[in-house]
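Record alcohol dehydrogenase (NADP(+)), 347 aa.
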Amino acid sequence: MTTVAAYAAPAAKAPLERTTIERRAVGEFDVLIDIKFAGICHSDIHQAREGWGEAIFPMVPGHEIAGVVAEVGSGVTRYAVGDRVGVGCMVDSCRECDNCKAGLEQYCTGGGMIGTYNALDRNGEPTYGGYSHQIVVDENYVVRIPDGLSLDVAAPLLCAGITTYSPLKHWNAGPGKKVAIVGMGGLGHMAVKIAHALGAEVTVLSQSLRKQEDGLKLGADHYYATSDPKTFEELAGTFDLILSTVSAPLNLDQFLSLLRTDGAFVNVGAPEEPVALNLFSVIMGRKSLAGSGIGGIQETQEMLDFCAEHGFGAEIELIAASEINEAYERVLASDVRYRFVIDTATI
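=>
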């Protein structure tokens, strides 16, 4: 066991504070990573404040982890000391179910994936995330960060990047497709970049036009305010795919009206409250209402390579660990462009 510094929420809704945690000894197939940067995801806030249900405390959030390999187990073949690596939202799964064998570890049916934090590992011990100096992870759940990506802008790709890349690929965003992104936050700005790089015609649907200039610079072709009722009249029946990145309840019937026949509305943002739906909104037009999690390990590596190939990471604001609680409040106020990243050297 190794003692490392970390920032943790001692209880639900409590401010995060500096503490120490124990990391397991490096096993045969483990990789010890010196964490350099950790992104702050809205889901960190949901879980630290028990917005998604009962959680495990003390909690060290963080599943957007970028760092450098410091030690490897005797059986590790994929990585060596000094490699630039990342860890996303999961650190293990059953590895035996059909989904795990198909590279869909995020949808593991053999007990579910083991989250990077707020979960129990195979030994029944709590997992602790990336707001810390080091982490030990099985090599099969570690990905390589290409040399073309700086570690700070790569960190948010381990959640925000793959969470948007996976559904955009699955629903065939590309040339000839009209794709709308709901929300221009941490996930939304990555969705715009990725959809544009895939060749789709990209529209941002945001509450206001406050971030319009940013959206167009990042690759959007069009930008509309959803607070304007005329938006829904003008864009009715327009899109092949709508990707919702917001974590607030939406008027789903209103947004489904924007889909073409056979279009899909896909949720990657997860509101804490239930949402209402008139089923005629999907029946008329053979439309789909769907959701998507993160991506498997292989797809996450594919996403990182794709982003490096196209020369972009996340748009970030680098902060010290002492600013985490302030950053949480600013995320809730939509006051970040577009992802806070913690310099873990400041922990």
